Predict the 3D structure of the following.
Amino acid sequence: MEEHKHNDEVVSDRQIRRRTILSFIGFFVFIGVGFLAFRWLYHTPDAAGVHAPLRKGYEVNEKIFGSTFNKNKLVKTYPLSAAVKNVRVNGDVGMGNDFDVSTWRMHLVRKPGDTLLISLADIKALPKTEVIFDFKCIEGWSQVTHWGGVRFSDFLAKNGITDLAAFKYVGLQTPDKQYYVGIDMSSMMQPQTLLCYEMNGKPLPYDQGAPLRLIIPVKYGIKHLKRIGYLFFSNQKPPDYWAERGYDYYSGH
Ligand SMILES: Nc1nc2c(c(=O)[nH]1)N[C@H]1C(S)=C(S)[C@@H](COP(=O)(O)O)O[C@H]1N2
Ligand SMILES: [Mo]
């Protein structure tokens, strides 16, 4: 039987030394380039809470996801039995400790200087929609939760202000204006986006945003503003609490 021939090359000590030196040089060039790139990024100007090139990255993503967003596509829903009973409370900016829910009104700014005051009874008079979906927070947790309220698109239609959907953004603020979000109009008009007044079939608890919060399943938790005080329309991006602190403005998933 013929002996199997290995074709391992024989490597001399000199070659080994050469390769070792080359890989060391390669290693230091790699580290150096990384360091320079980091230093460059570190000294770039700030763009709303993050370095400008990173903000640019968010904006490129936003263009791609915004342009492929289909507002008729529904987020996955779950059976009632999947909804958790103990819903996590996360984030209390702008919630206050002694907010009087009974005298609450939502300021609907149709245009600057033209504000309608909306009561909870006004909201509840509109058709009710429920959604059970996987609520996702950017902190890394998620929960299947059950919400009830009025579709934002129904709210516009029933108030005869569907023409306001021509604006690019909706801005929402808590009554004390401490928490605020800006949301693109197509996400607001998606049929699962609710002006929400119920959780698990009961009135919203205080810490969950009583009497009215936003539920917007196409977005991460940061956009689901609790306790809506003001609602307005704009073609410029409305101020956004977490975007100002370095998070993605679009925050879709
Ligand atoms: N007013 C207000 N709304 C808010 C927040 C907040 O701090 N203040 N936090 C947001 C974040 S980060 C998440 S994950 C959800 C949590 O909603 P939950 O407390 O009902 O679970 O609320 C959002 N809405
Ligand atoms: Mo969150």
Remarks:
- The mean pLDDT is 92.
- Residues 87-95, 137, 174, 179, 208, 221-222, 224-227 surround MTE (ligand 1) (CB under 6 Å).
